[in-house]
């Protein structure tokens, strides 16, 4: 590696979004962005972010462009600061990114976005980081991004170290180890009014259910790990739906209430339960937004897609396989 980082140093990366089966909501430390609970997710092939990072001379600050529009860069700069520190440079960077799905809408754009940024920024700086270091770097932008460094099934450890060094994700299985399908049901294209960061702070501060959320997380994580190890789809699905509804109970009891659902969200939840009653093993999960992710077996995708397309208010139904780890494009 040369002594000084050359202006113009650039790299591009792709990272896929993920959906948590056992969810993260609440922080231990807002500066380190360490989660209060561990989480388990699957990475989605159909939803991804492409990001280019270019270090330049003559910039007064980092610039963040999303689909050609200049955005606020505070969180992006937090990740770039760590890269600059590790590389020993003062050069600012231009970040050019695009998501192939709606941003800030409950489809985990912060997960794919900051995982892609971690890989592209460290690559442009000429750093060779381990997956664990990349996961920690991505976590500083968004907690869910720590999981999107990995394909297939990932678990995020909450950790307890004062410096956040044991708060990172690991891969449990690849998608090839146990192929599942996720049908993404989009009921709203616009961004949520309360971001995940703000929403989870409000839940921790005001919901009487928050202590129960913290107390019951370790049991859900252990059960989900066992379901994945046993390749037990029914157990995985039932537990995912239960943990999702527990999260939304926490959101609904936050003051003021966080109601991320719309009418189509509820109709789609019923459609999934109807499918199940008719013998198709399908289970929903929902993040901080009005979109459903329907977990099902790959052979059942056409049935699930057809059923959810017929729900009033559904804009788009996008089937997905499990996706790969984050990677360099060039
Ligand atoms: P989502 O449900 O989409 O994850 P969040 O409220 O968690 O919504 O995150 C939205 C945040 O993620 C915003 O601050 C936005 O700037 C950031 N973000 C979205 N896409 C990207 C991207 N491609 N690169 C960096 N940051 C991104
Ligand atoms: C409901 O990772 O978006 O999607 O760390 O503040 O950026 P920040 O929050 P974020 O929260 C994700 C919340 C969730 C559940 C999950 O993905 O685990
Ligand atoms: Co997010």
From TrEMBL:
<protein>
    <recommendedName>
        <fullName>diphosphomevalonate decarboxylase</fullName>
        <ecNumber>4.1.1.33</ecNumber>
    </recommendedName>
</protein>
<feature type="domain" description="Diphosphomevalonate decarboxylase-like N-terminal">
    <location>
        <begin position="15"/>
        <end position="169"/>
    </location>
</feature>
<comment type="similarity">
    <text>Belongs to the diphosphomevalonate decarboxylase family.</text>
</comment>
<dbReference type="InterPro" id="IPR005935">
    <property type="entry name" value="Mev_decarb"/>
</dbReference>
<keyword id="KW-0547">Nucleotide-binding</keyword>
<dbReference type="InterPro" id="IPR036554">
    <property type="entry name" value="GHMP_kinase_C_sf"/>
</dbReference>
<keyword id="KW-0444">Lipid biosynthesis</keyword>
<dbReference type="InterPro" id="IPR053859">
    <property type="entry name" value="MVD-like_N"/>
</dbReference>
<dbReference type="GO" id="GO:0019287">
    <property type="term" value="P:isopentenyl diphosphate biosynthetic process, mevalonate pathway"/>
</dbReference>
<dbReference type="GO" id="GO:0005829">
    <property type="term" value="C:cytosol"/>
</dbReference>
<dbReference type="GO" id="GO:0005524">
    <property type="term" value="F:ATP binding"/>
</dbReference>
<dbReference type="Pfam" id="PF22700">
    <property type="entry name" value="MVD-like_N"/>
</dbReference>
<dbReference type="InterPro" id="IPR041431">
    <property type="entry name" value="Mvd1_C"/>
</dbReference>
<dbReference type="InterPro" id="IPR014721">
    <property type="entry name" value="Ribsml_uS5_D2-typ_fold_subgr"/>
</dbReference>
<keyword id="KW-0443">Lipid metabolism</keyword>
<feature type="domain" description="Mvd1 C-terminal">
    <location>
        <begin position="182"/>
        <end position="313"/>
    </location>
</feature>
<dbReference type="InterPro" id="IPR029765">
    <property type="entry name" value="Mev_diP_decarb"/>
</dbReference>
<keyword id="KW-0456">Lyase</keyword>
<dbReference type="InterPro" id="IPR020568">
    <property type="entry name" value="Ribosomal_Su5_D2-typ_SF"/>
</dbReference>
<dbReference type="GO" id="GO:0004163">
    <property type="term" value="F:diphosphomevalonate decarboxylase activity"/>
</dbReference>
<keyword id="KW-0067">ATP-binding</keyword>
<dbReference type="Pfam" id="PF18376">
    <property type="entry name" value="MDD_C"/>
</dbReference>
């Amino acid at each position: 590696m040369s002594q000084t980082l050359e202006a113009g140093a650039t790299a591009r990366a792709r990272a896929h979004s993920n959906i948590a089966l056992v969810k993260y909501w609440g922080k231990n430390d807002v500066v380190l962005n360490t989660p209060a609970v561990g989480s388990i997710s699957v990475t989605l092939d159909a939803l991804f972010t492409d990001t280019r990072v270019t270090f330049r001379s003559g910039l007064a600050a980092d610039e963040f462009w999303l689909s050609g529009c200049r955005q606020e860069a505070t969180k992006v700069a937090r990740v770039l600061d760590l890269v600059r520190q590790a590389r020993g440079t003062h050069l600012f960077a231009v970040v050019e990114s695009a998501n192939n799905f709606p941003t800030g809408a409950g489809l985990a754009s912060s997960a794919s976005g900051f995982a892609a940024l971690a890989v592209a920024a460290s690559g442009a700086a000429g750093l060779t980081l381990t997956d664990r270091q990349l996961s920690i770097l991505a976590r500083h932008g968004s907690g869910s991004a720590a999981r999107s460094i990995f394909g297939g099934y990932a678990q995020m450890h909450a950790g307890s170290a004062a410096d956040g060094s044991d708060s990172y994700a690991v891969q449990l299985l690849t998608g090839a180890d146990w192929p599942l399908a996720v049908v993404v049901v989009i009921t709203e294209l616009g961004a949520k009014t309360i971001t995940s960061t703000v929403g989870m702070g409000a839940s921790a501060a005001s919901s009487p259910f928050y202590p129960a959320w913290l107390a019951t997380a370790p049991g859900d994580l252990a059960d989900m790990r066992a379901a994945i190890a046993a390749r037990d789809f029914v157990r995985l699905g039932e537990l995912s739906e239960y943990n999702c509804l527990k999260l939304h109970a926490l959101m609904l009891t936050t003051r003021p209430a966080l109601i991320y659902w719309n009418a189509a969200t509820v109709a789609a939840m019923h459609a999934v339960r109807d499918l199940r009653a008719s013998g198709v093993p399908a289970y929903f999960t929902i993040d901080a937004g009005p979109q459903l992710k329907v977990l099902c077996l790959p052979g059942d995708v056409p049935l699930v897609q057809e059923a959810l397309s017929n729900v009033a208010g559904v804009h788009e139904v996008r089937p997905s396989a499990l996706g790969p780890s984050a990677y360099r494009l060039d």
